[in-house]
Design brief:
This protein is of the alpha/beta class. It has one domain (3-189): Alpha-Beta Complex (Spore Coat Polysaccharide Biosynthesis Protein SpsA, Chain A), CATH 3.90.550.10. 44% of the residues lie in helices and 21% in strands. The protein has ten helices and eight strands. The protein has helices at 13-26, 43-49, 61-71, 90-98, 122-133, 146-151, 162-170, 188-193, 195-210, 215-223, and strands at residues 3-9, 31-36, 53-56, 76-79, 84-85, 103-112, 142-145, 175-185. Strands 3-2-1-4-7-6-8-5 form an eight-stranded mixed beta sheet, with helices on both faces. The longest helix has 16 residues, at 195-210. The chain starts with a strand and ends with a helix.
Length: 224
């Protein structure tokens, strides 16, 4: 199974090199596509020097993931945040998951690098979310069969909550499961905005999304 990796970026030169280094240790991939939303810090040059295919995309993670997926040629696509590190052997774990009967997509379990004690238990939370709600966050490294993604119309073209919309459509096509591996992701967003503040914002925005609040309103709330 050939796997394409899509990484959305916006001024990620400080994070991208280490992420790509871990990706190389995770196993062979068909291609790495960096979908850039207008970086001005050298991210694009860094990605090209590392052998990535760089495409320009409208700013916004969902739009960038959609553009990257449309350019991908692999049998499966892994959507990887620029600050999320795959473990050694991670690609084998991904492929093994997608080869299970009826599985169309999934994600990895997640742990934070250098977490505050309030952020412990991430692996357990990932398993609960997948078991009860059949859902994973984008920083867990979401993957999907490309044929299934094309059948559901690609990555949802929304400015926010793209992983929620994606999983809502995927579960109508088959099973989604966690791979038997754990990614390490950055805690920078939590430390920049405050841990409790970030968790509270996430809960409020996700609740609003489930209640049907318009994406444009969710973006304003997220950025406020």
């Amino acid at each position: 199974m050939r796997v394409s990796v899509v990484i959305p970026t916006l001024n990620e030169s400080s994070e991208l090199s280490e992420t790509l280094a871990h990706l190389r240790l995770a196993g062979p991939v068909a291609e790495v596509i960096v979908a850039d939303g207008g970086s001005r810090d050298g991210t694009v040059d860094l990605a090209r020097a590392a052998g990535c295919r760089v495409i320009a995309a409208p700013r916004g993670r969902g739009f960038q993931l959609r553009a990257g997926a449309q350019a991908a040629t692999g049998d499966a696509i892994l959507f990887l945040h620029a600050d999320t590190w795959l473990p050694a052997g991670g690609m084998n774990a991904l492929i093994e998951t997608l080869q299970r009967p009826g599985v169309v997509g999934g994600a990895f379990a997640k742990a934070f690098r250098n977490p505050h004690w309030l952020m412990t238990g991430s692996r357990w939370k990932c398993r609960v979310r997948m078991h009860l709600w059949r859902f994973a966050y984008g920083d867990q490294g979401v993957f999907v069969l490309r044929s299934v993604l094309e059948r559901i119309g690609g990555v949802p073209s929304v400015p926010l909550m793209e992983e929620h919309e994606l999983f809502r459509r995927l579960v109508l096509e088959g099973n989604v499961e966690l791979a038997n591996a754990t990614v390490l992701t950055s805690a920078r967003r939590f430390r920049a905005s405050g841990i409790l503040t970030t968790y509270l914002r996430m809960i409020l925005i996700e609740t609003a999304w489930r209640l049907g609040v318009a994406p444009s309103a969710l973006v304003r709330a997220y950025r406020s």
